Amino acid sequence: MYARIILAAGVAALVSVAPVAAQQRGTIEFGAFASKSSWDNSLDMNSNWGAGGRVGAFLAPRLSVEFEAGGGTASRPAGLADVNTGTLSGRLTLVPLRLGHRTSILLGLGGDHTDTRFFESYGYHGLLGLKFRLSDAIALRVDGIASHMSMGGNNKSLHFGISVYRNPGVKLTTVYRTADAVPAPTYSDSVSAEETARLRAIAANYNALRDSLGRPVYVNPGAASSAAALATMQEMILFTRNSTVLSPESQEILDAKLPIFKDNPEMRIVITGFASQPGDSGYNMALGLRRAEVTKAYLVARGVAPVRIEIATKGEGQLLVAGPLELSENDPANVANRRSQFRLLVADPYLVAPRNP
């Protein structure tokens, strides 16, 4: 009955399943379950076993909307013929409590449509469930459901099965941008001389960076690297929550790097932007990139050639301090993770200390 449609969708999901980092907004749940149903005495039906399937979509990490279909065959007393039963349900499901990193408590409320050979009725139900995560993509789930039908009768059922999760909209990859490289606009007929010159300048900057990275760096064997200069170049800067504004402390750290850029002309760096753990991973990737961009813009505005700096983002990846998602924005773990980080491509670890003015 109803269950065949959802079961077919669940089989297709199992074939193409891909792990996701967490149950985020947009994650889809496909589930299959066995059920034990207990019918109201007034319906003249005995308890029976059945099966069904479930499709759900997460509106938020702790809230989802679910559609469920199940069915079975129930025997009847007094020699009456067995009867096929089918139930179609829709509900909102909340995760009010998590026990550690793997176990979640579920609460649900929704409506039902129940159909047999001799009656059809609508009603409502409540759900209390338990979910145990086996991996980022698979979980075991047990639900207890109590329902009431409009025609009268209170029914109970127990569902136990497996759920699979997919979020095709999230791609946890690192995004890199070559300095000053932008997509070239297309023109149907011709390209102006000004546009041609601009594109050639971009290509020349890119080639200069590529060629400089391929050249060997010759270091005077007797010259000692400046540990202080290296530490200054690698010092990180921090941001407040959801912000790309450079604080006065961050500006002082960046200003200290300028003399080292001046006295080490072969040096090239990568600035990587990071975000703290709370929030959608796609948003955090974009936020990390904006933080890297504003850091580069500050250095370029003070005389550093753009070709000497590449930018990247890790979003909420590679946390300096890991912690649960429920941490407040001012928790030391989240504060430490909102940062721009500096890595030397050329001249590391041999840096010349800046000369005194």
Tell me roughly what share of residues is in helical segments.
10-25%
Spatial ordering of strands, largest sheet: 1-2-3-4-5-6-7-8
For the termini, the CA-CA separation is 84 Å
How many DSSP helices? 6
As residue ranges, the low-confidence spans are 9-21, 170-175, 219-223
The CATH C-level name of the largest domain is: Alpha Beta
Give me the CATH architecture of the largest domain, please.
2-Layer Sandwich
Q: Could you give me the name of the CATH homologous superfamily of the largest domain?
A: OmpA-like domain
- The total beta strand count reads 13
In round numbers, the mean pLDDT is 80
Tell me the CATH topology of the largest domain. Answer: 60s Ribosomal Protein L30, Chain: A
Oligomer: single chain
The structural domain count equals: 2
Care to describe what's here?
The structure is a single chain. The chain has 357 residues and is of the alpha+beta class. The chain has 2 domains: 2-166, Porin, CATH 2.40.160; 175-346, OmpA-like domain (60s Ribosomal Protein L30, Chain: A), CATH 3.30.1330.60. It has 6 helices and 13 strands. It has helices at 2-15, 193-214, 227-234, 248-263, 281-301, 332-337; strands at residues 28-38, 48-60, 63-74, 83-99, 103-115, 120-133, 138-149, 154-166, 175-177, 237-238, 268-274, 309-315, 339-346. The protein has an 8-stranded antiparallel beta barrel with strand order 1-2-3-4-5-6-7-8. A hairpin with a 4-residue loop joins strand 7 (138-149) and strand 8. The longest helix is centred in the middle third of the chain and has 22 residues, at 193-214. It is elongated. The chain starts with a helix and ends in an 11-residue tail after the last strand.
